[in-house]
Amino acid sequence: MPFIGGGGGSSSPPDNNTIIINGSGLLQVVTDAPLTNTSGVGIAGVYYNSVYAQSTITGEAPTLSSTYAQYDTGVHVFKFYDNFIGVAINASNWTTDPTVSVNNSITISGQPDRGDLIAVNAIGELDVTDCLVQSGLGTENFVMSYNGSANTPAGGSLFIASRYSSPTVTYTIEIFGGGTLGTLGTSTEAALVILSMWQDATKGYGQLNYGTIHSGTFTELPTPYLSAQNSQDASAHPFVLQWVRTRLPPPSFVMPTLAVGALITTPTATKYGYAYGLPLVLSNTQSAGTPANMQQLISTSMASYANLCNYDCSNIFFTSDSAGATELASWRESGAPTGTVEWWVNLAANTIAATVGTLTIYLWFL
Q: If you count DSSP H runs as helices and E runs as strands, how many of each does the chain have, helices first?
């Protein structure tokens, strides 16, 4: 064996086809590529320097783990987060009526009357709210709504509605009692989609799957509360929320751009052991700087680095420094090493200056 040692405490990095004992005392087998079984599925524990097993702030969306939410780090990344794990509502976050049920997601049935999910606490005035939803096949669902200080659906509320007409579901951003601000797009029936909604002093905004932003004139709610309601008509059908989160808005709601640097081919002794680093340069083109603890979307192709990735990306983590010591909380939302992967990374105290400030963070392959 070329090298047997103590991970980050060793004097030299491991080569491929190596057995090591890492800094946490875990056995690691490093090969030229992830080993798979006869079905081509990656085998846990082989070529498997899993950061998830060691970190409390590096993880993934609840549906990406074989056990629901096993490595879900959303509460460490986002301002507010709920994955509806288990079979009971988190009463610290929501109030509900009997037509709402929880089972590692939340189903809002709307029968015999309207189904309601209403937040206990207000969110930030300018926060962006995202949810992963499987829309129902009813004539109208208020999938996500902002209510005022009374925290009840009423005139002046901002909401995203879904309306089913076979074979598609159409999503719109609307004002309760005030008309439609824009059509966000469509999906096939029962598809999982990500809906986003936010407000500023003069407008309400909506977005489907991070696509085109639609907006219209809206009187801002100073203390918005989240809610979701099924339709009130007799043809209501259940819809399912998988998770709900809020995040800080980037300046002017424009995410800093991403440029991927050259792979650092000399392994670095990081906090989890030797790893290869990939610099990520974030650039802010807006006239205001980014806030502290902003959630940055990292969306990039991993195809060129697939030989460095576990099949589930569980050996990837992010830091704010080139030594791989100061870990940033991250949450893999989607994707696999053969294509584009999307993460949300909390930038902690690191901010990006205005016009055109930059910040370099690092993605590591353990």
A: 1, 27
